[in-house]
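name: query_chain
kind: protein
chains: 1
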Amino acid sequence: MKKLSLLVILVVIGVSGAFAQIFQPVKWQFAAQKVNDKEAVIYMRAKIDPGWHIYSLNVADGGPIKTSFTFTPSADFSLVGKTTEPKPKTKYEDVFGMDVSYFNDEVVFSQKVRLNKGQTTVRGVVEFMACDAEQCLPPDEYAFAVPIN
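structure:
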């Protein structure tokens, strides 16, 4: 009887685990384009599921978690300026008591880099928060590596 109970429990756990999925309303893609032998631009594209949004790079304190990019330092390249974004949408959000800038559907961020070496890989992490009309997911991080040839 104990063996049968154990077998049933293991089957239930196995089946429920097979149906469990991690919900990710934001998918990231990364690419680089050389401007010349000494400069390149890193493009960081977020594809956002319908009804969801992520927040701008520029969100005031007291608001949601803003999108941010942290680049791993390397002797092969240096950052030129700050990460840029297109013009976000802005609306007042009661939950934060302030105007908040955000993106839905798709957004492409960019970062210029000065190349100290002809070929390199730019690595880093993007931190972001995704929300819909009813919920916000906990802040998430996504590590990336972008080769520049």
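note: The two ends are 64 Å apart (CA to CA).
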